[in-house]
Amino acid sequence: MQFSRLLVCFLLCFLLFSPQLSSADEFQYASIEGLFEQKVGEIVLPQIYQKLGHSISIISMPGKRAQMEAIMGRKDGEIMRIFTYGIENPNMVRVPTSYYHLETMAFAHKDSQITLNSKADLGKYNVLKVLGVKHTNNITQGLTHVYDFNDTQDMFTALGQKRTSLALTNTTDGLYMIKKLGLTHIVPLRPALANLELYHYIHPAVIEENPSLLQGLDTTIQAMKQSGELASLLRQAEEQVLASLP
């Protein structure tokens, strides 16, 4: 009898305090802090996982740290990156179907004399960008006058003081920051310099432990695209992020 009570107590303690059981279906991913598109992904990606019966948690951090945490396996992957992220980090597994997109847009002081006819014109100016963001890293490769900032807010604050500089970010991220900071002197220099799809990336150890996850995610994203559900969720998420501004 005494042994039975001890066994029951042991099993209860095991169930209550075992991290393996409490988080068996939870994956933890990294996102890049402060970017509009990443905030949207933080809302939408958990809903995609829910359809497969999984829950996820997301930790936001600077871009370079997010990449390192993912490739070292300290996080299970990143919520969204462009296609070339997978080429630069071949150990990471890309979910084949994209679930969001971005535009690489230049922003400048409205009184600047900057004109951009193509990305080749970027070399004429001082270019500001956020550290660790792949699409702006790629488009500024080989340029000499490139300056990194921790986030879009710091970058746009500096841009307001530099009429001979331009800043690069996703179009919606820039417009979000303009609204957040109440800026009236910074404008986008249309058209966009690039249009890129955004993909979910997973560490290979996660795929090895969950062999049906990759196909399940890809099939689910395709179905949600075809039905229009994904587009609806993305619009709602965009509105939610904008509504969070004071």
Please give a structural write-up.
With 246 residues, the protein is an alpha/beta fold. The chain folds into 2 domains: 18-101 and 197-243, Periplasmic binding protein-like II (D-Maltodextrin-Binding Protein, domain 2, 3-Layer(aba) Sandwich); 103-195, Periplasmic binding protein-like II (D-Maltodextrin-Binding Protein, domain 2), CATH 3.40.190. Helix content is 45%, strand content 24%. The chain has helices at 2-17, 19-22, 36-50, 63-71, 83-88, 134-139, 152-159, 171-181, 204-209, 213-227, 229-243; strands at 26-32, 55-61, 77-82, 93-94, 100-109, 126-130, 146-149, 165-170, 186-188, 194-202. The strands form 2 sheets. Strands 3, 4, 5, 6, 7, 8, 9 and 10 form an 8-stranded mixed sheet that branches. Helix 3 (36-50) packs across helix 11 (229-243). The longest helix has 16 residues, at 2-17. It is globular and about 55 Å long. Residues 6-24 have low confidence and may be disordered.
